[in-house]
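Researcher: Going back to the complex we discussed earlier. I've cleaned up the inputs and rechecked each line, so this should be the final set. Can you rerun the prediction on the complete assembly and write out the structure?
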Amino acid sequence: MSVAPISEAVTESVPYSKKQMSEARAANASSSGLLILLILVLPIMALLPAWPGRAFAQQPAPQFDDLAARAAAARDQGNLPLAIDLYTQAEQLKPDWVEGWFYLGQLQYSTDSYPAAINAFNHVLQLQPNAPPAMALRGLCEFETGAYDDALRDLEEAVQKGAANEPRNEQIIRFHYAQLLARASRFQGALLQYQFFATKNIDDPDLLLGLGLAGMRDPILPKDAPPEARDLLMAAGHAGYVFLSGDSQSADTLFNNLFARFPKGPGLHFFYGSLLSMHGPDLAIPQFQREVAVDPSNSVAHAILAYSLMFAGRFAEARPEAEASLAAAPDNGVALVALGRALAETGEPQRAAELLNQVLKTEPDNLEAHIGLAVVYARTGKREEAYRERMVCLGLEK
Amino acid sequence: MSAWFALAWKSSSRRLAAAAGVGALVWLICAFATDQPELAKAAKPEAAPVTCATCHVGAASSYLHAPMRHALELPGANPVLEAHPNLTVQMGAYAYTVQTKDGKSTYTVTDGKDTMTLPIRWPFGQHSQTWVLEKDGNMYEGLVSYFHEIEGLGTTPGDNKLTPHNLTEAMGRKLDTTETNMCFNCHATNAVDGVKLTLDKLTPGLDCERCHAGSEQHRADAIHDNYTTVPKKLRTMDAEDAANFCGQCHRTWDTVVRNGWKGIIDVRFQPYRLENSKCFTGTDRRISCLACHDPHQQVNHDPASYDSKCMACHGEAKTSSAFPNIKTCPVATSKCTSCHMPKLELPGVHARFTDHMIRIVRAGDPYPF
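Model: Rerun complete. Updated structure for the full complex:
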């Protein structure tokens, strides 16, 4: 079985937002109503000698092909409970039927039976490990069951393998992926996912809330956002959304309004700086500097400011910021890289090499650490070592 | 020039001016025959405004013809536009016309039904040329450019994958603030202040101040015999610093790697390519950009003229003792760059670029990195 038909099938019932989810649930409720009606009507129908359902029931050993065909028909007709029942029976006869497990999982996802759906997708992925749609759907189910780390792992891999390339799948996958990235404190990655919605002009309160949380670096899910913080988060999310949609002038006005309303609000300048950094460090640095001024104890802000200054080639300025960050958080990799590079450029190559190698012990593929080491060697006349580090960098970026 | 005089050049101007007797006399006489700062107040023409060229005669006069000086030339003083007053090309569904008349140039695009005409205010490039256009307060990079090699219009490099859906998109690619700033910052002087575009203060092309930060202050102070604010001497930069300095516009190694730019397109990024060379040593001025290129001069296209630069390291005497790992070429002793720095055609750009990644090039080898 190829992956493509699965991908096409899954997309028909996958919404992107909670509103669409509600609509899907309403459709499911209709299906449940139909089931109740059928339960009431069936005994009556059973009295009729020629009713096909009765003929089916009388067969002691239903054939797989017949079950599969009837399951597909039930699915096509929107009779989800019957389809689930038939797919389950079919899988008992033929447990290696990948397509059946996939549709079963999809149907169970559609009826909010998430643990059962996860079980079905587990079967799919055991039989066919490289099935991004199944991985994505399992990730979405895991999200609903609260298994957020598993969900992030699955959605991340699914996105890497192209599950979000299909336009009909993209919205729901990216929205959940963005929420999970922010929850895992991978805020910049989350902003990039939210950018997709802004560039497509897909607007939704949940999206704005999620974007506000990611921008303000609050590692919680939108559903867990405290009510008293929602106004600020939504407003920040809106400003971020406008920026990501490409209207940087309006976004600037919105952010400045927010700064006026919340002059001591931690995270706001950081958010705007993070967005501006997509266009280079020079624009972002003043915002990070203001963030540090608002909250001098914010070691992350110091680290990001140091890193931005390093990118801008302002090494002497980067150094104290990196040191301030490391004073509070000695293992901050970003600050270590920034300080290492700053030291390399300001005449302390030995200490620079120590710090950069310290980073590489835990992150062997850290590009900036390797770039910094190349600089250390270049600045100390170690031609062959510098060449080797440069080649490592070129290999990494591939 | 005598050895003494060469030494005198290297000494500070103040010390030189303070030197008395014969030395000062010799210096005053010789200053007229050199391109070094001439600091005697009496030598400055009273009526003429004091410029960098007043003292730095040689550098200033040769720089008048250097490519960087002409990185941006406004319409009315733009040789390319003046020499080609009526350029046209059909690109897919759109027809483009670039017309110049009475010192004013316009860029027109039409789909046959609708037409958009914009004035050309910012022509970037000396030989080949791309126009930055303004529409509704936004900046656009014209979707067609002039190419010296074909003496005509073609798709602007980097835009060949764009498919315009309307007349505005066919006119050009919208530039964001950062990209706009980068364009102007590398093709003009005083065009950007921090992160703000300051086109009202712009000087076309790269003026002294663009590379020699502080030269304006130095000029103002020098008028009052104050020589304490001399800009940093760039020729003392080592190879690493020079690559980073020139890379501000020609792209640094860091920039190219961070952006993941790959393939033949990066042959334009000379500092990046140079730093990929096995022989690049950050502390060695013999491999710096400035070892081969004087930014105040036109580029020398004679391969033989660079031989002495290569031989500064690869000369036989050097390899024997102090530089045991440096090889001599078994094939030739001249025109090193013709083999080791091949000229490569960049698709769509209608131009050949010297690959600054110095290496042993073998037939059939793919383009490295």
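Model: Worth noting: Confidence is low (pLDDT under 50) at residues 1-36, 38-42 of chain B.
Researcher: Good, that matches what I expected from the previous run.
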